[in-house]
């Protein structure tokens, strides 16, 4: 694989630091963010505000690939207009500057929120299982809308034929330090949710795969674990929590893996050559073991 100069916006963030570490094993990486990490990072740092297009132009000069992670996260509870402004305009700035600087590929961090299903609205539920990239998107919350707009913008740039654009849609990202909080969330009695996840390490490998893959002009990919974070077989808890199953259910898929996620990752496997490595039951057991060790210390 040819070594590339990869500029990562938002590389100091929770996910960004994992992406940079993974990319730096094979490429020359630049962290374009508002502030550097507070510890050594295997990347050059360039102070960059994605809301300043001139700063983005300067950061992307000489880059082979742009990876756009910077933006306002769903969990931050920002005012609606800020999600639309920062996530949408920031993405436009990266795409425009990348095209102007002759960057060959941009990888956008989209989100599961693009589909709107994580909003758990009674009027919008999964239309098929597993959910894949052909599933209709109907977001209402501004964060999901901002990601949908960013993907549309990305496709418009790819359509010109000057730059490839790949959009990755991570599921709920679990970092080592957030596993406990995630377990508290999913294990809460009566939790009404879809129990999806991806580890930060697996997500970082997906970004590297997107950087290195060849021949994709434009595409979007859900990036998630093979399994659910619910201990009960998926079709069972789905019926209990959501009511009837959708009309379109791949029964063979859930026979092969009863704990399979409601979100599929077949497209990422086939086109990016990526596959998750996590096992949620093993993660749960390891976390419980660490708690027991601390209590017995």
UniProtKB/TrEMBL annotation:
| Matches recorded under SUPFAM superfamilies | NAD(P)-binding Rossmann-fold domains (SSF51735)
Q: Where is the NAD-dependent epimerase/dehydratase domain?
A: 6-177
- Can you name this protein? Nucleoside-diphosphate-sugar epimerase
Q: Which organism is it from?
A: Paracoccus alkenifer
